[in-house]
Amino acid sequence: MTQEYPHGHHQSVLRGHRWRTVSNSAAYLLSSLRSDMVILDVGCGPGSITVDLASMVPQGKVIGMDTTADPFEEGLKLAAKRGINNVSFDVGDAKRLPFPDKTFDIVHAHQVLQYLNKDDRIQAIREMRRVAKPGGLVCMREADQGTVTFYPEVHGLKDFIELYCKVARSSGGEPDAGRRLHTWAKEAGFLAVDITATAGTWCYNTLEERSWWSSVWVDRILHSGWRDTTITGGHATQKDLDRLAEAWREWGSSEDAWYAIVHGEVLCHVR
Fold first, then answer.
1. pLDDT digit string (tens) for 76-94?
2. What are the b/e assignments for 5-26, b being 16+ CB within 10 Å?
3. Model pLDDT for residues 19-48, shown as the tens digit of each residue
4. How far is CA 135 from CA 13, 101, 107, 138, 213, in A?
5. Which residues of 80-100 are buried (b: 16+ CB within 10 A; e: fewer)?
6. Which contiguous run of DSSP H or E holds residue 186?
7. What is the pLDDT of residue 4?
8. Residue 46: partners with Cβ closer than 8 Å, 6 or more residues away
9. Do the beta carbons of residue 49 and residue 22 sit within 8 Å?
């Protein structure tokens, strides 16, 4: 990924990422897994999905890759805690994957392409296709901010989503990536007949879920790299961000709080 991840790797960001597992963020590829597969996880972050995938291919191996090694320590600790030894982590660029052609049975990317500009995201998909074996899969999942729905109707949350999308697009990203994912795969060279497109969701409603989700965003708004990007880019002031953080607190404190977002998913079959 040639563009710097706009949220950075502050603990508030990693706290959100480490919640992700195959079951809640990559279930669409479960039926495609075999125990001896070799898998590349592009944009792996702290590696919670990476390590989970490795547990499901005990005779295979999984490599997690990101643009910086900063979050890898978490992945290594998680693997050690779970007794998983068929996983490793490497620094690399999705636009120029450091692997030979036809290396992996599955190339997986979760919440990666939305942060890249148009040219880079198509090139990244081409690279994922290049390093996948014939008969293998390129599996991608992206959120779609335009599908966010929540209750109660806290006004500040709508303002936050609008600001989030504005900041993302200012650097060439696409926050409504989910609905476009299958078209990007075609632009990168996959035939429509080789693309299986589905949708998945994240939904937060229980006391634990809404408390966690709201606190993650309060911290990210006030402390992560996204805050710095937003202020230095002239998109908002600290006073604006304080107001949006308070809106998240208000939403999270409601016993009726409910939040959902749709994700686009594609399984791209490599010929």
1. 999 999 999 999 999 999 9
2. bbbbbbebbbebbbebebeebb
3. 899 999 999 999 999 999 999 999 999 999
4. 35, 13, 12, 10, 38
5. eeeebebbbbeebbbbebebe
6. helix 181-187
7. 61
8. 14, 17, 18, 71, 72, 74, 75, 78
9. yes
Exposed/middle/buried for 27, CB within 10 Å: 0-12, 13-18, 19+? middle
Instruction: Residue count of the chain, please give it.
Output: 271
Using left for φ > 0, alpha for ψ between -120 and 50, and beta otherwise, residue 8 falls in left
17 versus 160: the higher-pLDDT residue is 160
The three-class DSSP label of residue 264 is: strand
- Rg over alpha carbons for the chain, rounded to the nearest Å, is 18
In the chain, the largest separation of any two C-alpha atoms, in whole Å, equals: 53
Report the predicted TM-score, pTM, of the whole model to 2 decimal places.
Answer: 0.95
16, 216 contact by CB (below 8 A): yes
Q: Could you tell me the end-to-end alpha-carbon distance of the chain, in angstroms, rounded to an integer?
A: 25
- Residue 45 to residue 69: CA distance in whole angstroms: 9
DSSP 93: B
Q: What's the CA angle centered on 176, arms 147 and 17, to 5 degrees?
A: 85
